[in-house]
Design brief:
Belongs to the E(R) family. InterPro entries: EHR_sf, ERH. This protein is an alpha+beta fold. It has 4 helices and 4 strands; from the N terminus they run H-E-E-H-H-E-E-H. About 45% of the residues lie in helices and about 20% in strands. Helix 2 packs across helix 4.
């Protein structure tokens, strides 16, 4: 996406997440900015990994290391994942799927790391 089109999608964001086939695993996350939503998905993954590390290894260490591919595999493992992002030009929400979210996370993390 171009910088201009990114600005169109810079507003309010709802992430719709279903963690498993169970209907009661459905939830939504509400953010003022899409970057906040992307950061939240990273934190959810980190929380899952920290809990797994504590349960499997008995570790009390709250720190983990992971690669982008690990995060993307986690996003693929979710039963359903989509985003509703406010489009200021259209004055409405655009729906985006898992692949769009993964591409945005990749770009977001690259930007956070200072890469172009």
């Amino acid at each position: 996406m171009t910088e201009k089109s990114d600005k169109i999608f810079s507003g309010h964001c709802l992430l719709l997440v279903q963690f498993s086939q169970a209907e009661d695993s459905r939830t939504y996350l509400d953010f003022d900015r899409i970057d906040d939503g992307l950061e939240s998905l990273c934190r959810i993954y980190e929380g899952v990994q920290i809990n797994k590390k504590k349960n499997e290894l008995g570790s009390k260490d709250g720190q983990i290391d992971y690669e982008l591919t690990d995060l993307l595999k986690f996003l693929d493992s979710l039963y359903d994942l989509s985003a509703l992002v406010f489009n200021d030009k259209a004055k409405g929400y655009n729906s985006h799927g898992r692949e769009w979210i993964k591409a945005k996370i990749y770009r977001y993390l690259k930007d956070c790391a200072g890469e172009k």
